[in-house]
Amino acid sequence: DLLVVGSANADLVIDVERRPAAGETVLGGDLAVHPGGKGANQAVAAARLGAATALLARVGDDGHGRLLIDSLRTAGVDTAGVLVGGAPTGVALITVDPSGDNSIVVSPGANGRLTPEDVRAADGLLRTSRVVSTQLEIPLETVVEVVRSLPEGGRFVLNPSPPRPLPGEVLAACDPLIVNEHEAKVILGDSAAGDTPEDWARRLLAEGPRSVVVTLGAEGALVAETRTETERRTDESGAGVGGGVGAVGGGVDVEVTRVASVRVDAVDTTGAGDAFTAALAWRLGTGATLAEAAGYAARVGAAAVTRRGAQESFPTGAEVEAL
Ligand code: ADP
Q1: pLDDT grade for 160, boundaries at 50, 70 and 90
Q2: At which positions is K(+) bound (predicted)?
């Protein structure tokens, strides 16, 4: 089963004619409150697809926290691991102007109080999970503790968002590390300028993860994996791009596979990456190969961009099949 460890936020959204400058007050439309945060988004996305999903997170003892727990339960997420208290629920204050540009202030609140101790106390949840999926809207030391607490044979999936340099211990556990273009560039540093997405995938893999997925919006995604020389010789499929395989030393090859996107009318890409990651993590737990899981996830991500919002836009399993 899938365990998501991550953030839960209330997204407070106001449409404005113009975003305010320093010292300025502007009047906006009615406040809309949406359940969000990458952890909660992933958990809801997976549960809607039909995955048995639990969330380890922390919210405040307040109305926003109750709203989040409610929306998680409605989607079918196991909320026994959603801890309450310690700080107000995380909030994102979002103003959106008519051209769709936004300004966002995030108060991590209770997300910042999800501690390594909380991970150790959730030992039971971790032990029963095949796949554990995390992001970086919670403290990095908490993510490190997740890596150290993985059950035997448990698989670790990380979307490093918001991106920051990662300790080798965390990178080495990722199977896969899932990044979009922006996240790839931050993790690789300035030297990534001018490289192609395939270069990013190869270079990220060289930093230590067991596998890497680079998401490319409407262009789909790239999957990069190492494999042994023997596997390479016995594989007739030749599905690699840009020359297929390239040696990185030690008899280990890198194979980069392109995952096709689905052509859809994109309305709002909010949450697409969360839906993609959740779908991929769940499929891996059912025994799919990384390329198969990414192919399914691309259809989930495509479905998610056809509707407004984050959690409201996530498809059911039946909707993905119909795509
Ligand atoms: P993020 O939301 O993290 O920036 P992407 O924009 O790369 O991530 O989107 C994640 C995935 O969602 C993509 O790999 C793709 O499969 C799907 N997706 C996103 N935008 C579109 C689109 N316009 N058309 C089809 N699929 C899309």
Answers
A1: very high
A2: 268, 270, 304, 307, 309, 313
Give SS3 for 39. Answer: helix
User: Phi then psi for 221, rounded to 5 degrees?
Assistant: -155, 165
ipTM of the complex: 0.97
- Cα separation values, 136 from 27, 35, 167, 170, Å: 33, 18, 13, 12
Any idea what the CATH number is for the domain that residue 176 is in? 3.40.1190.20
Residue 232's domain spans which residues? 2-322
- 274 an active-site residue? yes
Check the annotation: does 166 bind a ligand. Answer: no
Question: Is-above-0.90 flag for pTM?
Answer: yes
The pLDDT > 70 percentage for the chain reads 91
Q: Which residue has the higher pLDDT, 120 or 322?
A: 120
Please report the atom of ligand 1 found closest to the CA of residue 182.
4
- Sheet architecture: strand order including 32-36: 32-36, 9-15, 90-96, 102-107
Query: Domain total for the chain?
Result: 1
Q: How far is the CA of 143 from the centre of ligand 1 (A)?
A: 25
Of ligand 1's listed atoms, the one at least distance from the Cα of 266 is 23
Centre of ligand 1 to C-alpha 228, Å, is 30
